[in-house]
Amino acid sequence: xxxxxxxYYQGLMDYLDNRLSAMEGRMQLWHGQNQRYNSEQQDxxxxxxxRVEGLKKDYTxxxxxxxxxxxxxxxxxxxxxxxxxxxxxxxxxxxRDRVLERGEWSLRERPLPEGEGEGWxxxxxxxxxxxxxxSGIRSVKILKRAGGPKxxxxxxxxxxxxxxxxxxxxxxxxxxxxxxxFSNSSGLDSSSSIKLHVEWTGPGSAVYNNHLYYVTxxxxxxxxxxxxxxxxxxxxAMFPLASVSPVYSLNPETVADLxxxxxxxxxxxxSSENEPNINLAKLELSTLDIEQIWDTGCPRENAxxxxxxxxxxxxxxxxxxxxxxxxxxxxxxxGVVQNEEAPLIYFPRRFGAHSSLKYNPExxxxxxxxxxxQIIYRLIMKxxxxxxxxx
Length: 391
Known about the structure:
With about 400 residues, the protein is α+β, with helices and mostly antiparallel strands. Mean pLDDT is about 80; it is low at about 85-115, about 115-130 and about 385-390. The chain has a four-stranded antiparallel β-sheet. A four-stranded antiparallel β-sheet has the order 2-3-4-5. Strands 6-7-8-9 form a four-stranded antiparallel β-sheet, with no helix packed on it. It has two domains: about 1-85; about 110-390, Lipocalin (Beta Barrel). It has helices at about 1-85, 180-185; strands spanning about 130-145, 150-155, 160-165, 170-175, 190-200, 205-210, 210-215, 220-225, 230-240, 255-260, 265-270, 275-285, 290-300, 305-310, 310-315, 325-330, 345, 355-360, 365-370, 375-385. The protein starts with a helix and ends in an 8-residue tail after the last strand. Strand 15 and strand 16 (about 325-330) form a beta hairpin. One of its GO terms (biological process) is signal transduction. Its main location: secreted. It holds the Pfam family OLF. One of its GO terms (cellular component) is extracellular space.
């Protein structure tokens, strides 16, 4: 009986020993597999790290190449601007304006060759009759860089003085004796400053016949008339709008834009936030009364600026990321020039986007403010009636 019990327990011990040996073998196998997996994981991590470092180096090299390309493109644009200054096209009209370039730009008009421009009536481009429309940009002068990214600069068409509004609001106006004086100055600090009793808002001011016209608004839009000769406010008129909203979507600081031309004073505005188009109002110079209002049909969306020449509104468009500005919508209060017939005018590529464009009817030039640069665009003009005399 005792021997049988001993055989039973001995068999049980052998069974347990075999089971433990099998478990130890499996544990050794799992341990080996775990070490192999861990080694593979370390190798994969090392490989991934090397690949990431390589991608970082490639990204850095690509970024440097893009930066060098950007510098080259910038230099090429500057060289093209220089070439454009000396190789600008001639026009078929005879503007009598001059621009600062060693006293004046050395451009002279020449008659069209025989047979060129057939079907068009060649007439003197007189500002007084105010029958001109813009057909192109003759040449460009980057005069200076003074002030912040946004602002307005404009001469008084009836005098040689130049006025500068730095920024998008303030109570100070900077005055220079002439364009030459401004060009030769060290900056705005060397100017004569004028303190205004009412703060101006937005780069939408205009100067005409020794008077400053500008916009101010808090809860409502007001047009202010300021006598620059005597130095005091002469008139203030409330402009009735349903709500205050930007007239140009790309320049939200401009709630209304004043423009002066041969026919007088104009105001570009938006009647409400829901109004998709730019509206135009003719203002009486002495009283600031509204004589007439038009819907130009030109959309506010992607508009950056506008100006008026001989009763024709030219709206300049761009893209949210500043590209090349272009006149893409035209409205004539007399209905002579149709938008479909007006030429599509592109501005030369500059630094960013215009915060303001002001027309000088005495010189037939635009004064633009582009990312802190003061620019003069010399225009090519033609008679309005010529737009209908094709063929």
